[in-house]
């Protein structure tokens, strides 16, 4: 039977998602042709603001790469625009004079940015923010220009503005309304948002109408209707989008604001359907991804001739993708005679919550500052929950399982990857999944931002019912086993297991050789439990720890020699300079940990570099003590009350090289001004007159956390004793790859304080740590002296081009 | 003009620890040669389809290597990227003779 010809106009998220759905149902039924005006494969448009903000790259936002089209036998005409459709003969015409026949046609032409029809809008340096080219243009402009003006203080405008700030520009945001995001927020939340963004460096012109873009050829500035002028080198128009319906209109397909579709995404013309931002359903046009994916699913079933539930519209919900700002809005947001609200405003914490109630049902919500309840609220809005349910659940703070019960199977759970509740349930049932990790592996749900993890957990619990076991939800080490870290460690001790393969074998791993997660973890646990006997497995180490250098994206390495306490001398600096010259080091960089990093060293040169340096490894790659950052202290500083350098060096010399679950950073400051930033270290010491304060569990990285005061001691020796006990307790009880900041919160600060405060326990911990410290070798020296390691690990084989006739 | 296959000696069996890789450059090919736990040798293109990561430095488990850049899992037998990621890398034939490792090109 000849395949049916299915054509898609618009190579964007909504249309291609629909094709994916169709391929899932009937992979071989259609011969698929896709037209896209943009010269790219299908990419995640939502992520463009993250690209601009530097959180991701253009390469990373491709959803379906060129191969995907090939693998699925889809003919893609990219960079090609459809100019006409003969809806009677069923033929598509493109701007390259191509003619393509279709049996079924999906219009997913998306929307186009709205450009204000004002004087000067065509000047060089005026751009919209809609596609990759716009994004690239803004990045390009930011390199040579200072001032940007963003017209539009809505979602897109603010995300663009944040991106431009990250690119180093000064940013003015011009907004017609008196407060920001006035479509999604009420004035209270809008003003709170404004204050937050002002503190991030944005400047606002509110209640301003832009009248003219100034400049000759290039943009020079803007004039508002009240006569005020501002200067700008780049103008971004983010005032809204409109459905791209010109083609449909020209071809006689019924159009209102968007292409009119019924509950099955059928247009007024037979065999032509529409999904996405160009489609108008029950007088609504959606510009958010979840509804578009829902539409795609309904249409896929329709086209494949399957029975499907009608699409009945979606509740709009919004989250602002600006780092450090938590804003959520869903459903209706304004009170009237019939719609009342419950508000909580905490000026001190900067949080605001408004829940809307219409006829006793939850109808909308605005959250600012704390959006933990957003999934919960959205679900209640979607099912039109009774206010009593909100009052019951809302106060408990924990979303109950009953909320996922009411979600329909088509409802999107993971917005990043477009995974519905149905996808997850099917995967759990058909593949017998029992943990969130497994669901993630099979469906990609919660793989990107992780925000939907609690929901995935609830769905798991709901689907498995009586089979659901909380014990499965303990975090297993990886998908090779269902055992948790604590269970594995207990078994290693009890059964006296001595290497990773043995652990996997005896404890019933479902893979013969483990994976990149469990191998390094087991290697660590074994070494922690048997510090003297265990022989470290190089092949179970991540490359950096195996080769004792930091791998870079081009496959070269960086080398950081130890500089105890951040103190160096002319001799060391000369050696570093000589090595940099000899080995053609590409970049010398002073690190955050007060030492020098040498970049661009080839793997086979590493032993030579180390031999020439003749300095110990700084372990800049290790899950171990990295650095002890110090301030200059009492010997030079007029405020210093203590010898911070001396203590820092002593700590570093005592604890270097010993393996820990994750990296450990320390600092010693000689006074509460804290120049060494002791408050954000795994262990930070602060000198006060006649004493040292010891802080623990601080972090300046992904899990930003202020360290907590553990105790105050009189002498340096006591600091070292406390530190030893703390490190060993962390070594013995933390999960592999768990930083102290997370560990302290998990096991409880008070528990740790009690254990370390107990003199006997402290001594025992220190004894066990000393045992582990006693067998450690300087790794660079060990490698320089071993030909076998150099041959096995560092040598490359180079064979000149071979003749091939 | 036909192509004759060439056997190129690249290493000795006893010079390569198990579960580790060696970078082998032959002309314009950069190859990751692995010595697997079961004693087999496998060779694939030394470039992850994701971001060009050097696969030779990855952690090897069974028949798979995990890219050191972003942890993509790739079969060293057929070069296929494992789900949920997609893609494929080139594979090369390896032969062992008298304790020597040869790549066939």
What features would you describe in this structure?
- The complex is a heterodimer of chains A (805) and B (105).
- By secondary structure, chain A is of the alpha/beta class.
- Helices cover 34% and strands 21% of the residues of chain A.
- Chain A has a five-stranded parallel sheet, with helices on one face. A five-stranded parallel sheet of chain A has the order 9-16-10-11-12, covered by helices on one side.
- In chain A, a hairpin with a 6-residue loop joins β13 and β14.
- In chain A, α23 packs across α26 (759-774).
- With 105 residues, chain B is mostly beta strands.
- Helix content of chain B is 0%, strand content 44%.
- Chain B has strands at residues 7-12, 20-26, 29-35, 41-45, 59-61, 64-66, 73-75, 91-97, 100-104.
- In chain B, strands 1-9-8-4-3-2 form a six-stranded antiparallel sheet, with no helix packed on it. Chain B has a three-stranded antiparallel sheet with strand order 5-6-7, with no helix packed on it.
- Chain B starts with 6 loop residues before the first strand and ends with a strand.
- The mean pLDDT of chain B is 90.
- The interface between A and B is large, with 43 and 43 residues.
- β38 (797-799) of chain A pairs parallel with β2 (20-26) of chain B, so a sheet runs across the interface.
| Spatial arrangement of strands, main beta sheet of chain A | 3-2-1-7-19
In angstroms, what separates the terminal alpha carbons of chain A? 46 Å
Count the E strands of chain B.
9
Q: Strand tally of chain A, please?
A: 38
Structural class of chain B: mainly beta
The percent range for strand residues of chain A is 15-25%
Biggest beta sheet summary of chain B? 6 strands, antiparallel
Helix percentage range of chain A: 25-40%
Span of the ends, CA to CA of chain B? 16 Å
Give the largest interface.
A-B, 43 and 43 residues
Run of helices and strands of chain B: EEEEEEEEE
**Low-confidence runs of chain A:** 396-401
Strand order of the largest sheet of chain B: 1-9-8-4-3-2
What global shape of chain B is seen? globular
**Assembly category:** heterodimer
The number of helical segments of chain A is 28
Rg result of chain B: 13 Å
Tally of helical runs of chain B: 0
């Amino acid at each position: 039977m000849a395949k049916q010809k299915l054509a898609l106009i618009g190579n964007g998220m909504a249309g291609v998602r629909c094709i994916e759905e169709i391929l899932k149902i009937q992979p071989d039924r259609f011969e698929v042709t896709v037209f896209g005006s943009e010269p790219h494969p299908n990419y995640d448009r939502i992520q463009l603001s993250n690209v601009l903000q530097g959180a991701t790259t253009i390469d990373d936002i491709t959803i379906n790469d060129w191969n995907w089209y090939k693998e699925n036998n889809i003919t893609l005409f990219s960079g090609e625009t459809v100019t006409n459709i003969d809806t009677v003969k069923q033929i598509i015409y493109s701007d390259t004079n191509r003619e393509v026949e279709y049996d079924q046609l999906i219009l997913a032409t998306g929307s186009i940015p709205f450009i204000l029809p004002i004087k000067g809008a065509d000047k060089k340096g005026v751009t919209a923010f809609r596609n990759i080219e716009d994004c690239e243009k803004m990045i390009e402009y930011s390199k040579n220009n200072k001032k940007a003006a963003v017209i539009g203080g809505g979602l897109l405008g603010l995300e663009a503005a944040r991106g431009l700030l990250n690119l180093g520009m000064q940013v003015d945001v011009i907004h017609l309304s008196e407060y920001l995001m006035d479509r999604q927020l009420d004035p209270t939340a809008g003003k709170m948002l404004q204050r937050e963004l002002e503190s991030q460096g944005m400047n606002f012109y509110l209640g301003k109408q832009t009248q003219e873009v100034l400049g000759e050829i290039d943009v020079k500035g803007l004039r508002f209707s009240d006569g005020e002028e501002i200067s700008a080198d780049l103008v971004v128009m983010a005032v809204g989008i409109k459905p791209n319906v010109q083609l449909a209109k020209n071809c006689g397909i019924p159009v209102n604001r968007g292409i009119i579709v019924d509950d099955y995404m059928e247009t007024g013309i037979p065999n032509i359907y529409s999904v996405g931002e160009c489609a108008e359903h029950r007088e609504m046009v959606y510009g958010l991804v979840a509804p578009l994916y829902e539409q795609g699913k309904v249409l896929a079933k329709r086209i494949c001739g399957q029975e499907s539930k009608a699409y009945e519209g979606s509740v709009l919900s919004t989250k602002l993708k600006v780092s450090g700002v938590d804003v959520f809005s869903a459903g209706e947001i304004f009170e009237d005679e019939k719609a009342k609200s419950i508000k909580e405003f905490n000026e001190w914490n900067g949080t605001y919550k408004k829940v809307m109630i219409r006829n006793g049902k939850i109808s909308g919500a605005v959250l600012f500052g704390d959006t933990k309840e957003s999934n919960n609220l959205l679900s209640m809005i979607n099912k039109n929950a009774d206010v009593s349910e909100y009052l019951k659940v809302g106060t408990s703070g924990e979303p109950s399982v009953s909320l996922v019960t009411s979600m329909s199977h088509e409802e999107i759970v993971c917005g990043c990857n477009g995974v519905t509740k149905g996808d997850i349930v099917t995967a759990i049932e058909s593949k017998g999944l029992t943990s969130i990790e497994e669901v993630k592996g099979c469906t990609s749900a919660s793989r990107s931002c992780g925000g939907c993890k609690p929901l995935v957990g609830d769905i798991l619990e709901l689907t498995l019912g009586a089979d659901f076991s909380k014990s499965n939800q303990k975090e297993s080490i990886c998908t090779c086993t269902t055992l948790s870290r604590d269970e594995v460690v207990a078994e290693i001790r009890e059964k006296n297991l001595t290497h990773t393969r043995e652990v996997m074998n005896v404890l019933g791993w479902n893979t013969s050789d483990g994976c990149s997660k469990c191998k390094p973890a087991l290697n660590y646990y074994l070494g922690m439990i048997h510090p003297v006997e265990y022989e470290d497995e190089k092949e179970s180490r991540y490359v950096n720890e195996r080769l004792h250098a930091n791998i870079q994206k081009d496959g070269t390495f960086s080398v950081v020699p130890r500089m105890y306490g951040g103190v160096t001398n002319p001799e060391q600096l000369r050696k570093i300079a000589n090595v940099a010259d000899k080995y053609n080091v590409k970049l010398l960089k002073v690190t955050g940990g007060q030492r020098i990093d040498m970049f661009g060293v080839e793997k086979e040169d590493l032993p030579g570099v180390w031999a020439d340096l003749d300095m110990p490894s700084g372990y800049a790659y290790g899950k171990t003590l990295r650095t002890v950052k110090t301030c200059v202290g009492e010997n030079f500083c007029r405020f210093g009350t203590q010898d911070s350098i001396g203590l820092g060096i002593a700590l570093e010399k005592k604890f270097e090289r010993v393996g820990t679950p994750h990296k450990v950073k320390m600092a010693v400051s000689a006074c509460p001004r804290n120049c060494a930033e002791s408050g954000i270290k795994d262990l930070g010491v602060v000198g006060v007159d006649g004493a040292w304060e010891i802080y623990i569990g601080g972090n300046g990285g992904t899990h930003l956390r202020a360290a907590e005061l553990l105790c105050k001691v009189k002498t340096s020796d006591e600091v070292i004793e406390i530190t030893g006990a703390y490190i060993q307790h962390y070594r013995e009880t933390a999960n592999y790859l768990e930083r102290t900041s997370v560990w302290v919160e998990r096991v409880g600060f008070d528990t740790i304080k009690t254990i370390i405060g107990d003199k006997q326990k402290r001594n025992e911990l220190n004894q066990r740590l000393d045992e582990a410290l006693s067998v450690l070798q300087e790794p660079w020296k060990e490698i320089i002296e071993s030909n076998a390691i150099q041959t096995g690990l560092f040598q490359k084989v180079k064979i000149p081009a071979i003749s091939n006739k | 003009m036909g192509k004759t296959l060439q056997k190129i000696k690249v290493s000795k069996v006893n010079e390569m620890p198990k579960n580790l890789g060696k970078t082998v450059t032959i002309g314009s090919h950069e190859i990751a040669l692995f010595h697997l736990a079961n004693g087999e040798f496998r060779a694939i293109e030394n470039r992850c389809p994701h971001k060009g990561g050097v696969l030779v430095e990855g952690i090897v488990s069974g028949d798979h290597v995990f890219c050191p850049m972003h942890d993509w899992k790739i079969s060293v037998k057929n070069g296929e990227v494992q789900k949920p990621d997609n893609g494929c890398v080139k594979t090369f034939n390896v032969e062992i003779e008298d304790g020597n490792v040869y790549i066939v090109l």
